[in-house]
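Structure (tokenized):
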């Protein structure tokens, strides 16, 4: 394995770790009554500001090479953060089912496989395909071992429309896959830092109107903005789970491709559960432990490259040299 590829695996593991623990900071904010659009706008805007300052200091932000590229960046930001976060948030709200949400979101690697092969002719072998499909039953064990099969509204829950909620969740899945497809294209022309900056800067714009219409009228904005209990988790989300995580994710997609990178998203619920155990907030049953083993095994298998693929990769690099 080349150093570049090994570095990409380290990057995606760090990314998944940040996204896995982001739930605790997000849940802390939502539990304190911070509205969804206001939370996302603040997180994304602060991340864009951090990236802008760092980019200006170190000269990392490239100028647009073609005017039409702004349309691609707008599409990237529309996929994620906008469509993904809206789909996930309203999906959870309308279904009131954390288990169903986790299962549907866990289908991202499968759709990522289809997208990678369709748009970029990414090479996969039988082992890769088996590994990707193994992550789904593994996650079923992890999720149902914790919550059980909650497919109907429970007493006191917020679910109001199961079909619409499921539609929102699949919107988030397709948005996540579309996000990686566009990232792969943009990293052929721009460095990863530039792509990450435009994604956040333009993404923040999409949340301004819904935030002003739906959230601000219901809030005591000055009280929120002067509360350290609001800014601490937002800073953690902006610095680690947005700025750094999306930058490393972009680097990973560039090196590993859509299929292999998306497979790692299956580990996010496991990171969240593991963090909960370390914090004393969760316990893991044996059925969940079995699911974790299956998921990790599936992810490892999905990354396996046949000898033919490896040799062809070496030969293609030697020809370029």
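Design, position by position:
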């Amino acid at each position: 394995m080349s150093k570049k590829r090994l570095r990409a695996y380290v990057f995606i593991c760090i990314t998944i770790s940040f996204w896995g623990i982001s739930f605790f900071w997000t849940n802390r904010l939502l539990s304190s009554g911070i509205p969804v659009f206001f939370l996302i706008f603040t997180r994304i805007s602060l991340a864009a500001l951090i990236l802008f300052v760092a980019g200006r200091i170190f000269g990392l932000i490239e100028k647009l090479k073609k005017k039409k590229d702004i349309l691609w960046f707008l599409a990237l930001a529309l996929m994620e953060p906008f469509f993904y976060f809206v789909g996930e948030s309203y999906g959870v709200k309308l279904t009131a089912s954390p288990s169903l949400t986790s299962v549907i979101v866990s289908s991202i690697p499968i759709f990522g496989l289809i997208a990678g092969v369709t748009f970029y002719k990414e090479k996969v072998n039988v082992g890769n395909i088996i590994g990707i499909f193994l992550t789904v039953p593994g996650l079923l064990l992890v999720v149902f071992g914790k919550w059980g099969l909650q497919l109907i509204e429970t007493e006191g829950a917020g679910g109001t429309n199961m079909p619409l909620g499921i539609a929102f969740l699949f919107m988030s899945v397709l948005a996540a896959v579309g996000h990686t497809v566009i990232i792969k294209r943009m990293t052929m022309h721009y460095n990863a830092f530039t792509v990450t900056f435009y994604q956040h800067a333009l993404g923040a714009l999409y949340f301004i109107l819904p935030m002003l219409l739906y959230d601000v009228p219901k809030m005591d904005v000055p009280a929120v903005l002067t509360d350290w209990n609001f800014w601490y988790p937002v800073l953690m989300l902006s610095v680690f789970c947005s700025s750094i995580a999306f930058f490393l994710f972009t680097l990973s997609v560039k090196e590993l491709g859509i299929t292999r990178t998306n497979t790692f998203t299956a580990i996010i619920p496991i990171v969240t559960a593991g963090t909960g155990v370390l914090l004393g907030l969760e316990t893991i049953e044996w059925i969940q432990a079995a699911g974790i083993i299956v998921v990790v095994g599936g992810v490892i298998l999905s990354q396996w490259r046949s000898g033919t693929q490896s040799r062809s990769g070496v030969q293609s690099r030697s020809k370029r040299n």
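Reviewer-requested clarification: Confidence is low (pLDDT under 50) at residues 149-157, 310-321. The two ends are 18 Å apart (CA to CA).
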